[in-house]
Write a structure and sequence with these properties.
- By secondary structure, the chain is an alpha+beta fold.
- Among the domains are: 76 residues, Alpha-Beta Plaits (2-Layer Sandwich); 67 residues, Ubiquitin-like (UB roll); 63 residues, no CATH class; 54 residues, no CATH class.
- Helix content is 23%, strand content 42%.
- A hairpin with a 2-residue loop joins strand 16 and strand 17.
- The longest helix is centred in the first third of the chain and has 28 residues.
- The radius of gyration is 46 Å and the shape is elongated.
Length: 389
């Protein structure tokens, strides 16, 4: 069939009747233009005709108690309907592309890591006060103004930078480095004992020694004096220097519980899915009234975004509630070994000997460790000049 017939529309139909050839002859006498006539069997045949002749053929089949089935349509209205569907699809795709393009002009993902002196929350709060917040129109942001505003609000920071790509902002910050204190000239000082102990070894480089190895000293007792007297009776002040290794005694105590309540955890866990749009949450959950006692909540959030391309203000959140299982009562011997190991790690210097004693009281394991250590007890103490030059 020609292009004109295709533009008007063509329909392929099947006729079923007792005498299909007679029905076809009558249709041709009425002026119906049939093409591509194929006899399928004694009671049916198929043919093609213009779409505008279809109502007349349907009326004839109804009058003659014949069956008419449309096999396919081509050209004409069908092409127009397909074109409309394709146009609607193209318009929808264009609208999605436009929305994604417009969405990339707004901030939906802000990545900021805190520092040692400034927490992530404080940094995000300062950024929000300077205009860097979710939904902000980032082309209007002045990175230098944001940097100055944040550093003014957080004097603990020494450096900060703001990088924006698509709808994602990355903030890098560093702590302010303290200005090193000016080293003042060391003044006269003496050495005193930091704690009680038995002097084992000493090394005196300057000053007047007052104790010797094998002597027991008390905390605060002067070990090396910084006052030196000359033969003329004059006293001058110096800075005593030296080291004193002494055997000291220490007693440490640690406590841990030996009893714990064990819950009968539920035998099932469940999850719910939701969406986060901005600061609002919408959950698709049919059991929100369920009691959650005895469960631990685990949440995972998935941002709807393609890194470096676009980011939307919508996230998928999956919450999983898993039964809480409390640990059983710990083993007393294992807990004692653990506590003793922890206490030994706290001891200063070199461990000479140690004795431990444990007792159980009111559901608690109490461990006491007595140790003898070899440690440095020299402590420098400044001397006031008190009229000395």
């Amino acid at each position: 069939m020609g292009n004109a017939a295709y533009r008007l529309g063509t329909v392929r139909v099947r006729l079923r009747s007792a005498e299909p050839t007679l029905l076809l002859d009558e249709a041709l006498r009425r002026g119906l233009r049939a093409r591509e006539i194929v006899s399928e069997d004694a009671c049916s045949l198929s043919l093609s005709l213009p779409e505008r002749d279809l109502p007349s053929l349907e009326a004839l089949c109804t009058a003659r108690n014949a069956e008419l089935a449309v096999l396919r349509r081509s050209g004409g209205r069908e092409s127009l309907r397909r074109a409309r569907r394709n146009a609607a699809l193209l318009i929808a795709l264009a609208a999605v592309a436009l929305l994604l393009s417009l969405s990339s002009l707004f901030l939906w993902d802000i990545e900021a890591e805190g520092t040692e002196t400034v927490s992530r929350g404080e940094l995000l709060r300062a950024l929000e006060e300077c205009g860097v917040r979710e939904g902000a129109f980032w082309p209007a942001l002045d990175a230098e103004a944001v940097r100055s505003g944040v550093l003014l609000r957080l004097p603990q920071l020494g450096w900060m930078t703001l990088n924006v790509r698509s709808s994602r902002a990355v903030v890098l910050a560093r702590d302010r480095q303290p200005v090193p204190a000016r080293l003042r000239e060391q003044g006269p000082a003496e050495i005193v004992a930091a704690r009680d102990g038995l002097i084992v070894r000493c090394d005196i480089r300057s000053g007047r020694p007052l104790v010797s190895p094998g002597q027991v000293v008390a905390a605060g007792e002067t070990l090396v004096s910084g006052r030196l007297e000359s033969l003329c009776g004059e006293t001058r002040l110096v800075r005593a220097e030296g080291s004193f290794l002494a055997e000291t005694e220490r007693e440490l105590t640690a406590v841990c519980p030996l009893e714990s309540e064990v819950e009968q955890a539920p035998r099932f866990a469940f999850a719910r899915v939701g969406l986060i749009a901005g600061k609002r949450r919408l959950y698709f959950d049919f059991g929100s009234s369920r009691t959650l006692d005895g469960y631990d909540r685990i949440e995972r959030t998935y941002k709807i975004a393609i890194k470096g391309v676009f980011s939307l203000p919508v996230s998928l959140v999956i919450e999983r509630w898993e039964p809480r299982v409390l640990p059983s009562a710990p083993d007393a011997a294992a807990e004692r070994a653990r506590l003793e190991s922890d206490l030994r790690a706290l001891l200063p210097g070199e461990l000479r000997s140690a004795q431990s004693a444990a007792e159980e009281k009111n559901g608690l394991l109490i461990l006491r460790l007595q140790a003898r250590c070899l440690e440095e007890i020299a402590l420098y103490q400044e001397i006031e000049r008190e009229g000395f030059p």
